[in-house]
Design brief:
- There is one protein chain.
- With 353 residues, this protein is mainly β.
- It has three domains: 39-150, Immunoglobulin-like, CATH 2.60.40.10; 159-252, Immunoglobulin-like; 255-352, Immunoglobulin-like, CATH 2.60.40.
- Helix content is 10%, strand content 41%.
- A hairpin with a 2-residue loop joins strand 7 and strand 8 (137-141).
């Protein structure tokens, strides 16, 4: 019996040795000079324009896989740089093991402006490539694809400054209200003390400044005229027409949330708290499934709803629509009426705690 097993054992050992050699030979055939990938989408000559409306859209990039001759995971890095820089300092759009990637246009837009430092709202000549590698070795780089993309950034609207005694009569550091049409400016400003003020067309006293005409609701461009005055310090809404030289001022004693999602339903507002440092209003409260809007002074003369009822963060506009709260819970609701940065709009956030 023992004599019969020896030949079998020898055969098994020989088989294992042969298999081991075959595996070693398989590992050794990785081709370090594999054919580089080719970008098949987005193609040479692509022209894209990013707008406010398309920032949530997806742009798909595709390329063919690199064959290194063995079964191994290949890493692909999608890079973008300004034309003519030879990828001296490219931005990385994506890193993946797949042969395609879908990117949100808003994310591309942010990288173009913040990282690549291209000029917003102007077509930029760009170069695109894909780098393939295995464990950061054996690089294979695709041919460069030349494209053009116009990134989007909200243009800052025309502005009126509100210098006054409450801030040292310094137009350069004064709060602003912004244009809502050709000659009409609107905005909210907190005036904590020294209630006299003026409107200026520039952050200085060298251009037009608008003062008190001595007729209620009317302005004058006489630079030597007195400033306007407010009855008490507080948070005010200003509306100015520089063509008709008219103005309207409303004291906002409180902002509140209202709607059948709120404790007061549609009958009474739940008050929000003003944060002077952040220039925002907010409230944390329990909400239920239903609708939510914002209104001033527990009335309907000044009220806002969402541009999109299903968005938990977005732009506030004058509308009958309301934010849709899908489920009961504790929420923090905030509004920012400063228009101090892009998109230069009244905005809100609703966050479930």
């Amino acid at each position: 019996m023992k004599n019969k097993m020896k030949p079998i054992s020898i055969l098994v050992l020989a088989f294992l040795l042969v298999m081991g050699c075959e595996k070693d030979e398989t590992k050794a055939v990785l081709n370090p000079n594999a054919t580089p990938p080719q970008i098949t989408e987005v193609k040479e000559g692509y022209v894209g324009v990013i707008t406010e409306e398309t920032t949530t859209d997806t742009l798909v990039f595709e390329w063919n896989k690199v064959d290194y001759g063995v079964s191994t995971e290949v890493s692909y890095v999608l890079e973008l740089d300004s034309a003519g820089r030879n990828f001296a300092a490219p931005i990385v759009l994506a890193t993946t093991a797949l042969d395609s990637v879908g990117l949100i246009l808003g994310d591309i837009n942010t990288k173009l402006i913040d990282q690549l430092k291209v000029t917003p709202n102007v077509a930029s000549s760009l170069e695109l490539r894909v780098r393939a590698s295995v464990n950061s070795k054996f690089p294979a780089v695709s041919p460069v694809v030349k494209i053009k993309i116009t990134p989007w950034k909200a243009a800052k609207p025309a502005t009126l400054w509100l210098p006054g005694g409450y801030q040292g009569w310094n137009p350069g550091n004064a709060p602003v209200i912004v244009a809502v049409s050709d000659f009409v400016f609107e905005g909210y400003v907190y005036i904590g003390s020294g209630t006299a003020f003026k409107f200026t067309s520039s952050p200085d006293w060298d251009h037009i400044n608008y003062g008190d005409s001595k007729t209620p609701g009317k302005l004058t461009t006489d630079g030597l005229a007195d400033g306007l005055s407010l009855p008490v310090p507080g948070y005010y809404k200003f509306k100015v027409d520089t063509d008709q030289l008219t103005y309207q001022i409303d004291l906002i004693q409180t902002w509140g949330v209202v709607g059948d999602a709120t404790p007061g339903a549609w009958a009474s507002s739940t008050a929000m708290t003003y944060n002077q440092a952040k220039d925002t209003w907010s409230v944390t409260l329990n909400l239920k499934n239903g609708a939510l809007k914002f209104r001033a002074n527990d009335g309907w003369d000044i009220n806002y709803g969402p541009a999109n009822s299903n968005d938990f963060a977005g732009t506030l506009i004058q509308t009958d629509a309301a934010i849709s709260i899908p489920e009961e819970g504790n929420y923090t609701v905030t509004i920012d009426l400063s228009k101090s940065k892009a998109p230069y709009a009244y905005t809100y956030t609703v966050k479930k705690n």
